[in-house]
Automatic annotation (TrEMBL), chains A, B, C, D:
Pathway the protein acts in: Amino-acid biosynthesis; ergothioneine biosynthesis
Region forming the signal peptide: none
InterPro entries per the UniProt record, alphabetical: CTDL_fold, DinB-like, EgtB, Sulfatase_Mod_Factor_Kinase, SUMF_dom, SUMF_sf
Protein name as annotated: Ergothioneine biosynthesis protein EgtB
Name of a matching Pfam family: DinB_2
Organism: Patiriisocius marinus
SUPFAM superfamilies, A to Z: C-type lectin-like
Record-linked Gene3D superfamilies: paralog of FGE (formylglycine-generating enzyme) (3.90.1580.10)
Keywords, alphabetical: Iron, Oxidoreductase
Length: 388, 388, 388, 388
């Protein structure tokens, strides 16, 4: 269990970190929503704040006065239990509340919550909700960064976020296959004292057959071979649904790649740069990860294979697509009420990603962490680790 | 012909008026595009500036240096002749160039053009282009106001634009029919020295049969009767296409009307207010105007009937839907080049509106002015004058 | 007024003609609806029958027994007044009632109506409804032919309808412009004893300026020049809406044209044939007719110009697109009840076509007849006559 | 291995069975495609025939003459390797080839193949292709029945297929939970001599935790309780994606259910009948199966749980939705060439169903058989078996 003081520190640090991530933005950047998946930064700032107000202050702090009666409508995301909300596709149409007012809202709620925490003995329930809110905000810190990248990277002026952000590190090890033996493995979160989500508990046994898994991620150079081999035009390597998707979208390279006068570039948070060949490929869909693996005569690991072997390789630069569908672990029950809407209701037609990325918040991942996205999405820092 | 000095004054006043209209906005309001027809105010500011840069400075001012090489891409609207441009639906996804930079762009072009005009003898061609640019900007002043109203009025917080804006004046006259005799009338612009668009020249004769036209516009109170009579649910009064449109959109009242606790309100630029019963109805589509007229056993006037009789009534509060399709006058030829894209290419599947509205720029209308919109659009200040 | 005997003859001949048109069909051809505008032949057979049952027999024949209580649901087209009906897009999904049963329905209603007519003194009202039904069926005879052509011509096997159908005749006259003087012309139907639709009455004066109109239609050879000149790729000649339509659909030639090994062919009711160069172009949209005229430095005539000059040229091979929007004539009132749904509710966003085509039923057109279609439609036998 | 004689018998019986299933149809019923998932019966007849022609006769029978050079275009389903084909949504727009010609095609290919088989020693390869073709046709026999049901059951006349078809049998056993112990189970096809698909081989171990599985299927009466409890309107029991789907489609009951004067009916192949309360519910989506299980405080079994326990209960009336996503078994490799397009390319975003239904062809299922459909589909005979 975490001491109160540490908990308050964790809370204030998280709150302040989110705001720090937005420092390089112009006010205009806070407002836009170029595609439905990308929320305006202003909305992330408000939504993470609303979570603390709605689930803690409103119900637990005596005489708490809402910052504004209509902000729940503006900043609820998808909690059906909580009532009406701005349609998701409309987030980018709301010029008000303005950025300054959203910051006021943040500071008001941060202070109210600090006050509250300092005056009470933190109960198990409050601690749980608080940690939930903190990790919810950390999760949004990652989305904030990928959404900012999308907003700037899809602007025809290709403005940079800053000069120093490092999106990739070269993995220096030589490629090798790690061999894993057949047998029963235990999967799922164990240390129940530590923070975790409901989708990763239910520690349970799985039987794995002999497999091999790569010690490092597929690089840009390797992915370029895949492009040059013409695989984007060869249906043999793609799922039927992926092939339709390619024809509809015209996609033929990772998101943010640009070929300029025969030289490959990619947009990064530091602006448009020549493609770095030895860094791990990023911003690809599951469909592309799968096709790449097919073409190499390999496959993607399952999430169980990944978890069972993850001690043997470095990870953390990219969210790694697995072959596993996002499904409940044995014995999974969703929590009652709105908090229960967090994970369970998305357990269909999505794929699990394991690991973490360069924009994952500190302490917001672990070997049992289950991230999940639809098979066509690319704006996250996603990558490929092969298995066979 | 206009003296140079007057022309420069007209130019600088127009430029400054546009900026004055934006004074009450927050930076965030400049950015959003809630529906495809509504452009971000920032875009209007840039686009009207680009017009002067593209059509005058770039081609006529010696050694003119573009403010930014990519701004043409960002601020071209629909001129196919000029090259690529941001897709219309993407205008609200562009956070950059920011508002401050757009104002810099404006001031740069305004000054460059003033300099240019002061150093030359203004040729007929330059005068024509300049007047074109000025009236183009005046036209965008009206769109700017209707777009601002849409942005604020569709925000769930219903923020006001300012406290003083007057959208409606009561027409004090008693209703009466004005009778017009059968015969030949002359239609179209006459004073070719005065500024005009190419769609209104070609003064020509039309034969009109006896008709009567209302001396005043349909009021909110009268339109409310139409609603109460259940006509939004009675197909008999609607075009087949209108009936489909009603079923798809669920529309059952003018845009910006809200029924709150059994009392009708409307959003105005001064905020949400009780509906003023005796002001002219506004923000209705052609479909609704037509159905209203049908229900009253009347019809809408043609644009020729309107023009022939307009001396006999007051107009200027609302753009008045006519029964006329937007078509070329006899002898109409579109101008060569990009300037020719202004009017002719829209002459299909739209309706003519006559008059002016409370947000029409000063001196930007006249009895022969032909405005035009698609039959389902409502975000302009549109109204109804009956005929029979 | 028409003698009873003649009326009965006209009725039975019309009924029998419709069935004769379907003779070459296989049962399968009666069922399909490849696009929403094209109805299954079976539906035309049923719908024209339902019209007589619904508007005459049901209300006027004592003790008339409906053929089947649910056929009104299956065969109503768009009459909101009459009640629910199969959604238009679903017509091709209804395998029942089968073709044989639809013919039974036809014969039942034909016989019942003949019986009825023979036992009564035909009142003015019945005569009007009967003529309405007959002309309604004649109109559907034309649609039947164009729908059959679409069904067969869009089948990859390109089956022929028969061997003898003549779609085009060469217009032997040398091209010349017919000059028409300025002045007042009378427009609209005159002989009110003769059958006519409500949209063509209201004989009225229009003032026409001097114009010239072509004595013959644009030929395939001439249209081919337009294609070769690359005008399908040059936005300058197209309406903005037309340009969008071209980009969406990829259209670059008239419907039914195919380029096979560098030689142009067209699908006709006799099967796929080499393009006949001197026959009038057909199956083009208003958008294309307009662009062609622009490219020739001409324009399309208005419907008034067409009517005023039609005595001076041959017409009847193609429906000729005019520049006129489909609007009510002065004094137009739609009839009360379902019959009134026939014309008025379509008077928006469509264009008038004048003349007739090779598949127009005998005696189903006249100089004042106003046909109308949306600007993008091409499956009718449409053509181009130039004016200037 | 199967003796040649038996193989030829199996082939001819299968061919003849397909035609027998179509006996009750009118010609019109063969043609229509009311939704994209439902193919015209005529297409099933042709497509199953094309499979034998394309994969056996064309490549293996000396001097084989194609029945028609364009039939491959008409009857290929989704084999990208084989070349162009009629777009899936267009199958219902093709009136030709007609039903009689498709039967000619069937008989030609059946006879050519019988001739061929009688003159050769059947190699392993031919045997494999032949069995593939036979089972492919058996699979289409099931689709044929569900498509016929859809075509007739969505026709407003609700015609029956025949009088004798039995869609449901009451499961007489009392409900009980079957308990299964924790441990390693072997999953996948074993008898490689027997026909099987590539998706079910790769016999492998899985570790299952203790679970209980129902001995019988959920009944109509039980499902009615779910409806009466208002669960179709309570988001708590649904996946987020399912909730969107409910709102879009307005679905609130199984496919083919109709409430008439307060009494529940369902359309069956014998026509519209009062709902039989004790038969197993059918025509529900995975979304509904999942929500039902949630509401009962249970869950759906995984496909492994189902296979491990299937000896302990009767199955075969309904395809039973499982919680398992359709994924490759360990070591799965898709076959090279067109045959490899059969299964692997669909292994994403679908759910596994186990068991069989009342319209599954004889000998076309087994305990290891893996059926799969998208989560929203309902036109198959699908049902629910609970687990916990």
């Amino acid at each position: 269990m975490i001491a109160t003081k540490n908990l308050v520190t964790l809370f204030t640090e998280t709150r302040s970190k989110t705001e720090q991530l937005c420092k390089p933005l112009e006010i205009e950047d806070y407002v836009v929503q170029p595609i439905v998946d990308v929320s305006p930064p202003k909305w992330h700032l408000g939504h993470t704040t609303w979570f603390f107000e709605e689930f803690i202050l409103k119900h637990h702090k005596p005489n708490y006065k809402l910052f504004h009666p209509d902000f729940a409508f503006a900043f609820n995301s998808y909690y059906e239990s909580i009532g009406k909300r701005v349609v998701r596709t409309d987030r980018g149409n709301m010029s008000r509340p303005g950025v300054a007012q959203v910051y006021d809202y943040r500071h008001y709620v941060t202070n109210e919550l600090k006050d509250f925490l300092e005056t009470i003995d933190i109960s198990k329930e409050i601690e749980h909700l608080l940690l939930m809110g903190i990790h919810h905000e950390k999760q949004h810190q990652e989305l904030l960064m990928t959404d900012i990248k999308y907003i700037l990277g899809n602007n025809s002026f290709q403005p940079k976020y800053d000069d120093h952000f490092i999106e990739s590190t070269t993995e220096k090890e030589k490629f090798k296959w790690i061999s894993m033996g057949e047998g029963i493995y235990e999967i799922g979160h164990t240390n129940l004292e530590e923070f975790h989500y409901d989708n990763e508990i239910g520690r349970h046994k799985v039987y794995l057959h002999k497999y091999e898994i790569a010690n490092k991620l597929v690089t840009n150079a390797e992915y370029l071979e895949f492009i040059k081999a013409g695989i984007y035009n060869d249906f043999n390597y793609w799922h039927a649904e992926a092939w339709e998707w390619l024809k509809e979208t015209g996609i033929s390279q990772p998101m943010y790649w640009h070929k300029i006068d025969e030289n490959w570039h990619h947009y990064t948070l530091n602006g448009l740069k020549p493609l770095t060949m030895d860094s791990p490929v990023k911003h690809i869909s599951y469909f592309e990860a799968f096709a790449y693996a097919q073409w190499k005569g390999c496959r993607l690991p399952t999430e169980f294979e990944w978890e069972a072997s993850q001690n043997n390789f470095k990870w953390g630069q990219r969210w790694e697509w697995t072959e596993s569908a996002y499904l409940p672990y044995p014995g999974y029950k969703k929590a009652p009420g709105a908090i229960g809407e967090y994970n369970g209701k998305f357990m269909v037609n999505q794929k699990v990603l394991r690991g973490a990325s360069v924009v994952t918040a500190s302490k917001h991942t672990r070997p049992t962490y289950r991230n999940f996205f639809h098979t066509n999405l690319r704006w996250q820092y996603t990558g490929i680790r092969l298995a066979k």
